[in-house]
Design goal:
alpha+beta, single chain, five-stranded mixed β-sheet, 384 residues
Amino acid sequence: MQIATTKVCLNPQAPIKAIGYAQQTQPMERIRDFLYGRILLLRQGDEAFVLCALDLCYSPRSLQCQLQQTLETRWGAAVHVIISCTHTHFGPDIHDEAYQTLVLRQLADAILAMKPRTAQLTCGYAWEPYRQVGDSRISHWQTDQVLAHTLCFYEGPARVASLCIYNCHPTVLGGDTPFFTGEYPGVALRALESRHSGEFFAFLQGAAGDVSTRFTRRAQTEQEMEAFGLKMADEFDRLLAQSSPVHPLTLAYRERLVKLSHSLKNPDRLVIPDYYSPREREVLEYGIAFSKQNLAHPETLQADARIDTLCLGPYRLVFCENELFSEYNRALDPQRAALVCYAQGQGPYIAGPSFDGMTYETLQDTLSDASRQALLAAIAEAGK
């Protein structure tokens, strides 16, 4: 087995708008803290496995395909590329052609410059429910599926790399924020890197469609974002300190497409209940606009969902491109598997099979009940 890690700066080089909030319409150039692509490269025999965790809101499938093709051409071997985004709403718009070209070039150059070393690697895993940062952001809906995970790689007794997973939207700040930032995950990673010099850390975003800081934060300020990042770092440190069993690291990769069918909603029938919060009422207007667009252009709806699995010893990371509700965590055994979203492409919200409300999120979700059940089953199968 061979391993190498690195991180590359993904700061934009020209004014560009952020993406994640409807208010973000004007280009900006101020960078509060650097945006990174954090890269883990593992080699097993003739295969290479590349995990890129980007401080972006999301990325298109085409970026993953182009990067994989570039690496396979240069290396002349099988390469499995996974691109996961931390889903910061304060990252540059990856749809901007010039910026997407920059990101592709930066990632490819960084990966091709990596020099893997041979090592006898083991892996360990820990998890627990954690609600001090995130909770349900829907006033009439509760979830018990807000989970923190760490998956660590060891060389002998030394921990050399850790993947930190949590399913809460990184949105302490508001939509009028005038700068780019990795939000609280970026703060958490900086804290972990400072506390554990020389170690590699990356943040993977979980199924956060219905989970955010909306009802856990006290204010939408930089100070609160920093405080939440440090809380998250403390939680990951608690998991890192657990004496979980370690296993020899072996690698395998699986992928599949789940065909999707749709059942469009009519927003004209929407009745907003009195118990909705002011913020929920505000964002419903955006959901209504999305819903009307879907009704007018059904040919643009998502035809399939991509589900990829990275097998790491006995553990499984299951990747999905959509903004899944946290209920999809139930498809996996949390003792050995974690769900990572905003990965391998860009897809809209998908509500959990048991959710029957009409919200901003579900007005973007057009899936039929049968497709939600099929997706749940596919995730369960991917985690085996």
